[in-house]
Structures are given as structure tokens and as C-alpha cells.
Amino acid sequence: MKKILLALFMGSPLLFFAQNRLSGTVTDSISQPIKGVSVFLPDVHKSAITDDQGQYQFNNIPLGTLKVSFSFLGYQTKTASALINPGENTLSVTLSQSEFKMDEVVVSTVFNKLQSQNVMKVEHSSIKQLQHKGAVTLVEGIATIPGVSQISTGTSIGKPVIRGLSGNRVLVYSQGVRLENQQFGDEHGLGLNDSGIESVEVIKGPASLLYGSDALGGVLYFNPEKFAAANTFKADFGQKLFSNTLGSSTTLGMKTSTENLKFLARGNYTTQSDYEIADGKKVTNTRYNESDFKTAVGFSNDNYSGVLRYNFNALRLGIPENGIAEQSNNKTPDYPRQTVYNHLLSLNNTLFFRDSKLDLDLGYISNTRSELEESATPNLKMQLNTFNYDAKYHLPKIGKMESIVGLQGMHQSNVNKAEEFLIPDAVTNDIGFFGTTNYEWKSNAIQAGLRYDNRKINSEAHGISGDEGAFDAIGRSFDSFNASVGYKTNLAKPVTLRLNLASGFRAPNLAELASNGVHEGTNRYEIGNKNLKTEQNVQTDINLEYNNSHFEFFANGFYNHINRYIYTSPTGEIREENEVFEYIQNNAALYGGEIGFHVHPHPLDWLHYETSFETVTGKKQDGNYLPLIPANNWNNTLRGEFSALKWLSDGYASLNVSHTFAQRNVSGFETASAGYTLVNVGLGGKVKLGKNAFDVSLNGNNLFDERYIAHLSRLKTDGIPNIGRNIILGVNFNL
């Protein structure tokens, strides 16, 4: 069957073009060939695997300079630039052994450097690494990265928090386009499933230079899974089972490629019942079902590379309003519930010229969010359609200086299709222009840039002015200039220092400008302020890293000053039996950082110990604390890696102890939270049974069934604890 599908896909003689080839050999420090090295050309989305002789080959690639990355577990990742001329081209490299994690190519900062070469500190983690930690959801896994946490509603909804900032202050990118899924609501999830996502990059700090409004607090950049290597066909099946929720997650995928054409498809279905807390009781109506489908087609030849991707995500989740009430193992959400349908279509294009290239990314997102209180007829239904465009021209390189100029924009419409309105019908238009330059010499690098943005918001009037759910018409325009500069140097061979200074901005969202009614889940009557001004911040970052073959240390510090920070403040009134809050502005500051180390003692080559501590403090100008600031956390992991058994390879066992401190620094309408300690264990590897091999993982989360309430849990006001002990079994194998 595999051969038939591959033959059908590869059969057309129209796929062959003039041959520009790149080939070479990958060896180790004693000149022995390395088999299985992943060789990747990010510009054209092509990959290859070295054979028994350590050799690789690419055909039909563009002329000019291409970046090539070489990665293999146990060796340092290496990137090189290959000047491709007509005909045959050769690039051979030597990889050095490394006991630590592989150095990854960073996509989110546009120059596509290795993290060790990058001016800005970016956290990178593969989805497989997050899954090995036993994360139930994508955001739960991301929250294990130092400096990142989540605002959660049970196990079904998680909103990322980066260094104390969340919602529209954190921008999310998927498939190369900005994700717009009504981020303003804490009860609104991202609409992303980890199936079909290869890795995530986290920019902790203002990234408005590269991404415009809403990147004031940082960026989550999700990288989709790569295509298969040329002339190969792969299919895989995966299954995960969850003891606490009696849940399951099933994934099935396939992919194939020729020299020019590439195709992949992946589906996932996840179902969970109500989660159980430490005393054995279930939190009523926290159940959910999620369906996810991703597919992609890629094409490349001598001067063009393009990838068309589509992602459909359907989430049906219960809204927990009654706390711990009816006990059930039912997986069908009860009323009230939400249904969220998300369509994401993207087209990523690269046109190659002799000494330069043009990246053009186009995206269309259709997000339909409905709330059903008592029947299948929605009380609230919002339709958000967004068209994004992003053009970046990479100018010809001048010596060691690389420069990019860009144009980005967005057209967005929000339409209400039910009786209840949360925000008014509105149209938003963005446009931004930027330029950035990266200059390197020896072990030093400087990166700087400037940007101008304009955002226009026009909303329609609805209802009788002053009544609940009524909105006055709004027409606002917001402008901002922003800049950033960063410097990276090696103080000594194993010591890297990074210094960054950047500004960012965020235009007020529709909820902040126009709210007029009870905000469900917060038990507040919220009133918007149509006169709000743009938030503007300046953040300084310092990063110090020390690396040798057996010890790694990092220390990150930041200070973030925000002018005109937007937040809600009580007015002292009562409406609809709820306290009234209005949106106001005040200057604010957030500061803190992360520190940690990773030790790999010699001669115990199989043993790793990692520890990290993170802290953030947020205050308004009047000295009061900001809301929704995560508690300090100290995280420790002891991990062993082994491949001694014939039937087991890439084996690992881990013990994780995570202590979250009490959070006493709270805003006027928050309550303090107690500290807690969670113990998690993991075990897994590749099991070989004859000619078959299975990736198996077994995780025990909250192993001692600790009863705790996270500070950023939206169920905290009702005194509902977070999930208790959860055993997760995962199996994945190639078909």
C-alpha cells in the first residue's frame, strides 16, 4: 500500500526541473561517518537523513545562499551557509559531541540563527519534550517553561502568561500567521491542539518590532511538523490514556514527499470526563471533546518554495458553574457549555533571487464561539474573521551584516449572531512597517530595528445607550513607533552575555473599549472606556549563560515599565446584583527573572539534574499590586537516560518536584493563595519487538494526590481545587 501511494504521488514527469544539487558527508571528531543525522533546509522546507556512509543529498534547490542545519541527538547542532551555484555543490561538516540538549534553529526572530548565536534569548522546546512531562493540554506543557504559566479553567482551557502578562498582551503565532481567537477573554482558549505541532518558541518580552500590536508581553511561536524526507512515505499512530479523567487522545498521521512536492495530513480526537480532585470528588461539567485536523501541501523548485496549510479545530466543553455537584463519568458536556470552531488557512511563500529573498505569509482565520446555557440554541455567538499578511524582504548581505525590511497587516471583523452581545460588531485594520539589521563579528552580534504601526477600530452601535448589553459606536485610531536594540557577546569561550532594550505597544481591545454588562465567570459588571489610550512599554533584559561539557547555568533578569496599563477597578456601585468595575489606566512595572542550572556529572553520563527558579512582581504606580501575577516557582528534575537493553533504546526515567510558593502580593479584588508541592514521575523509551518498535511513555502527575488551588485558576473564587493524581500512558508507532 505504501509503495502504491508513493508511486501515485511521485509519478508525474512534470515535477522534474533543472538540477541544482547539494550533497555532502557528516562525520564526527575522528572522521567516522554519522548515520541518521537530520539535515534541514528551512528556506525550502526540505529535509534529508544521512545514510550509512554519513552522506546526504538535496536536488532541485534555489541558487544563492541557503542555510543548512545538521542535528543529531548527542551532538551539537550545526548551521552553515551554502552558496548554491548551477549544477553540483558540496558541503561536508564535522559534528562535535554534546551531552546537553541540541542547539535549535530559532524561527521566531526572522534571522533564523541557532539559539547560541541569537541576540535575543528565546526559549525552545519540542512538543515531544512537553508530552514526556505528562501535560494534558498544549498550554499546560508550555507552562513548564521557566517564565511561562497559565490562567486555567479546569483542564479544558488554558491561557498563556509570560512574566505576568496575558490575554491580548501575548501574541500567538501558528503556521507562520498570527492567531486571533478572541484572546481578550480568560475563558477563551487558543483553539490549538499539540498534535501536528513540532515545537514552540517563547519570546519573553516586547516583540512589537517584529510582530506589532499585542506582542507587548511576548510571543508564543508554534512550529508545525516537518514534511517527510524526499522520496519517502511515513505513517504513524498514537494513543494516550488518562486515569484521572478516564480520557483518551488518539492521533493518526501520514506524510510523503518527492523532490518537489510534499504532503502531510494528521487527525486527532481527544475526549475527557470531569476531572477528579484529591478527595476523589469530580468537578462537575469540566468534561470536553476536541477534534483536530491538519493538512499541508508543499512545493519547491529552483526559485520558489511554498507551503499551503489548513487546520480545523472543534472544541466542545462544559462550563463548570455548580462546582462539585452531580458525579458522572459522562464525556458529553452538559449545559451550560461552549462550542468553538476554528479554521486556520495559511500560505507561506519564499521567492529566491541571486543574493536576496522575499518571504510572503498569508493567513485566514475563521473563529466561531458559541455559549449555550440551556439548549442547543446559542445565547452568545461570535464570528471572528481575520485576514493576515506579512511580507519580509531579506536584502543582499553586506559583509557580515544582514538586513530585513517588512510590511505586515490585518483586516478583522467581529459579528454577533445571537441575542446576547459580549462585544459589539466591529472592524479592525492594522498596518505596520519595520526594518531590522543584524551585524556579527567574531563572537559578538548586534541587532537593532525600528517600526511604525497604525490600528483602526470601528464598531457599530447596538441597543439603547446605557442599558446592559448596549454599545455606542466607536471610531478610534492608534499609532505607535517602536524600537529595539540587542547585544550578544562571549565574555569567555563558555560564557555568553545578552543585553536587550526594546519597546512595545498594545492598542485597547474591544472588551476594554466597549464592555457594558456582566462578565460571566468573574461575577462582575464591567464597563468599558472608549477613551482608553495605547499601552506603551520599555523592557530591559539581561541574560547570562555558562556552558561546558558537563555543566550549564543561566540567569535572566528583566524590568518592564508600562505606561497607561489598562485594568479594571471597582466603582462601588452594584448592578444586576454584581459589583461594577470600570476600565482605567495607570502606569505599572513588572520585574523579576529566572535562574537555574543543569549538571551532567562525569563519569555518570546517563544522569542529569536540572533546577530553575522563577519570580515576577507586578505593581501599579500607586504601589498596589497588579492582578493575575503568577506565584514564584522552584522546579527540580532528576533524569536518567539509558539504552543498555537490546529491546529498549532512548530510554529515560525522571523525577520532578515542583514547589509553588504562596502568593500574597495580590490586587484589591484577588485573594491570596497558599503554596504547594507537586511530585511527578516519568518513564519511557523506544521498545523493540522483533521488527516493530514503539515509543512508550508512562507519567504520574501529582503523584501524592496533593490538594491545591493554583493562584491563576479561574475556579479559585469558588474554592475548587486543581486536578488530583493523573496517570498517563502513551504509545506511538510507525505503520
Topology summary:
Blueprint: H1 2-10, E1 20-27, E2 38-41, E3 46-49, E4 55-58, E5 64-71, E6 78-84, E7 87-90, E8 93-94, E9 122-126, H2 127-132, H3 138-142, E10 148-153, E11 157-162, E12 170-174, E13 177-178, E14 197-204, H4 208-211, E15 218-224, E16 232-242, E17 247-257, E18 261-272, E19 288-300, E20 304-318, E21 337-352, E22 357-372, E23 380-394, E24 401-416, E25 426-441, E26 444-459, E27 474-492, E28 495-506, H5 510-514, E29 516-519, E30 524-527, E31 535-547, E32 551-575, E33 578-599, E34 607-620, E35 633-642, E36 648-660, E37 676-689, E38 692-701, E39 726-734
Parallel strand pairs: 1-7, 1-8, 12-15, 30-33
Antiparallel strand pairs: 1-4, 2-3, 2-5, 5-6, 9-14, 10-11, 12-13, 14-15, 16-17, 16-39, 17-18, 18-19, 19-20, 20-21, 21-22, 22-23, 23-24, 24-25, 25-26, 26-27, 27-28, 28-31, 29-30, 31-32, 32-33, 33-34, 34-35, 35-36, 36-37, 37-38, 38-39
Task: Report on this structure.
With 735 residues, the chain is mainly beta. It folds into 2 domains: 1-98, Immunoglobulin-like, CATH 2.60.40; 218-734, Maltoporin, Chain A (Beta Barrel), CATH 2.40.170. Helix content is 4%, strand content 55%. The chain has 5 helices and 39 strands. The protein has a 22-stranded antiparallel β-barrel. A 5-stranded mixed beta sheet has the order 9-14-15-12-13. Strands 1, 4, 7 and 8 form a 4-stranded mixed beta sheet that branches. It is globular, with a radius of gyration of 26 Å. Residues 1-18 have low confidence and may be disordered.
